[in-house]
Amino acid sequence: MKNWFAFLVASLLLISNTIMAQDNTARVLVLIHSDHGGTYELAKEIAKGIESGKTVKAVIKQVRTSADPKLKDIPVATVDELPTYDGIAFGSPVYFGNISTGMSEFFSKTVDLWTNHSLEGMPATVFMSAGSGAGKELALQSFWNSLAVHGMVLVSNGIRGNENIDKNIPQGNSVLGITSPASLKNVERPSKDERYLAELQGKNFAKVALSLKGSFSKKTLAEKPKQKSINDILKEKNIVLPTLPKPVGNYELFSRSGNLVFINQVSLKDGKILNPGKLGVNVNEEQVKEATKQTMLNIIAILKDAVGGDLNKVKKCVQLIGTFNTKDDYTQHASLMNTASDLTVEIFGEKGKHTRNTSGAYSLPVGSSVSIQAIFEVE
Ligand SMILES: Cc1cc2nc3c(=O)[nH]c(=O)nc-3n(C[C@H](O)[C@H](O)[C@H](O)COP(=O)(O)O)c2cc1C
């Protein structure tokens, strides 16, 4: 009985200690944009400093998937999650004495957080990777501008740790936050001292985040109605995307320029043209519509490949251009093309609405009765 009672007391103590420990733990987001890894190297030191006190947990995330393979596995942060943290350390490359375009694009998506006062009172600190370091303090300052507009508590670095660094080489120390001049290769960058200052910055920031924890609202945005995933829509509507056709010449299946994807297709199905011929001569309207649907499915299959397999990244169908193999006096091209337009709207909803052009042609490649050119905007 006595043993049982002792066990109960010990368990209760353990549970209450765990709850207290959880309460005293802060979570800090280290949010970066990095093209080549310089900012990420600093981020790791900042995170190390943040976690040195044990009661603060650091999470490194990026604002968008980096094109650099060594950075592509860093999770991508959503704007909506920002208010859930107890502090945010922001890192970016210096771009023309400013924050990087990637970071700036991310900030441009935070308007709802701003008007909702979601980040007010939350501590923030900044760090940057530079080239030569030209304009680094302008850039750090520009970071502060955006964060001040959000009402965040800006945590500077001052001259913390400067007495311990090697003054014989250029160092990226700055009172606003650590930087590293990555193109100055007299030593490996970030230099040993820049890493040291980054860690100190993280350590100090963790102290501030812990002290301010619970003093601001962490007001998250009202939950938006969840958009149905395109995969679910395809399944629901029993739409099966074909396997990717192979290019039969010196061209690509798609071409991406910025956020636009360009795709051109004919009615290829299982390696053969579906319903080939000229409308009114050897194919009828129903057959051309079937070929048009197949052509649009080919386009969407290629589009899926262009967005890395996730059709939810499609922001808009911008334009479709349909060309049909018809006789001279044919005028109902629009009704044929509706097959492609309807399918696009059926799959992408509002995002599928587009401008359109249709025309007839005397002949089309490989005997196809239809050819479609499509332009999509993607994330
Ligand atoms: C568009 C652009 C503008 C840049 N402007 C500057 C600049 O004003 N000052 C500077 O020191 N470096 C500048 N750089 C260099 C980057 O800041 C530097 O390569 C940085 O280390 C990249 O960080 P990352 O390795 O995290 O991608 C610029 C780079 C680009 C692409």
From TrEMBL:
It comes from the Bacteria. InterPro entries: Endoribo_LPSP/chorism_mut-like, Flavodoxin/NO_synth, Flavoprotein-like_sf, FMN_Rdtase-like_dom, RutC-like_sf. Residues 1-21 form the signal peptide. Keywords: Signal. Residues 28-205 form the Flavodoxin-like domain. This is NAD(P)H-dependent oxidoreductase. The keyword Flavoprotein does not apply. CDD domains: YjgF_YER057c_UK114_like_1. The keyword ATP-binding does not apply. Gene3D superfamilies: 3.40.50.360, RutC-like. The lineage of its organism: Bacteria, Pseudomonadati, Bacteroidota, Flavobacteriia, Flavobacteriales.
